[in-house]
Amino acid sequence: MLLLSLWLAFGGFDIPPVPVSINIAGQPVYVPLSGSVSDSMLLRLRADLSDFQAHITPLLQAELNKSDRCGERISIEEARLARQAPGANLTVRLHFEKWACFKAFGKENAKRLVGGDAVVEMKMTPRTADVGRIEADGSLGELLRSGAIGDALRDKIRESLMKSIHKVSDLDTLVPAQVRPYIEIRSIDFAGETTLELRLAAQLKLPAEQAAGLLEQLRNRK
């Protein structure tokens, strides 16, 4: 009875596009959001991630670049995030060096132990990121493919990327606060062809006495 009365009152509706701005690693990222609510109270949201893709290099640079005199020096040269069904693919070109310090004749000196350029690929969904291909020459390649340093670097890239993705897909950003407690997420996936999209499907379980007002907030989301 409730769903029927809501359908008669609203007939299902589209959520008009809204430009949402998210701060990620000090970078403003704009995520146009649109969606719809069906007569069966199924909420569908679509977030355009093209600006997120355009900012992926400076985002990772802000999170990962470092230059320790007696440790690791990491420089993210370029990162690309692209749709690759059923998820997305991240390609990171970086320069990595490992330095060690030692004392000689009362003076501290720094020596480079290993260094060079590398390419790291990750296969992603909105919830996971798994390391794929790793390209690097010589001793650096061996270090990145096996060993604690390579594992730590891959984990840093994964954690940095997933932190940003979680901000983009956070319901606190996408949905009015009053509606969030009544959402049951069914699926969240990457989609799109030329540009990457985030698509979320959820069931709305609204209390009868608040349903009309909450749906109106979704309809006029700003």
List keywords for this structure.
222 residues, alpha+beta, Nuclear Transport Factor 2, Chain: A, 2 domains, 5-stranded antiparallel β-sheet, 30% helix
C-alpha end-to-end distance: 30 Å
Strand tally, please?
Answer: 10
Radius of gyration: 23 Å
The total count of helices amounts to 7
What is the domain total for the residues?
Answer: 2
Q: Report the biggest beta sheet as strand number plus sense, adding barrel if it closes.
A: 5 strands, antiparallel
Strand content: over 45%
State the order of secondary-structure elements, H for helix, E for strand: HEEEHHEEEEEHHHEEH
- Oligomerization category of the chains in this entry: single chain
Shape: elongated
Mean pLDDT: 86
Give the low-pLDDT segments: none
Helix content: 25-40%
Instruction: Please identify the structural class as seen in this structure.
Output: alpha+beta
Instruction: Record the strand order, biggest sheet.
Output: 1-2-3-10-9
Structure description:
- The longest helix has 22 residues, at 148-169.
- Helices cover 30% and strands 48% of the residues.
- A 5-stranded antiparallel beta sheet has the order 1-2-3-10-9.
- The protein is of the alpha+beta class and 222 residues long.
- It contains 7 helices and 10 strands.
- Helix 3 (56-64) packs across helix 5 (148-169).
- It has 2 domains: 2-52 and 168-219; 65-163, Roll (Nuclear Transport Factor 2, Chain: A), CATH 3.10.450.
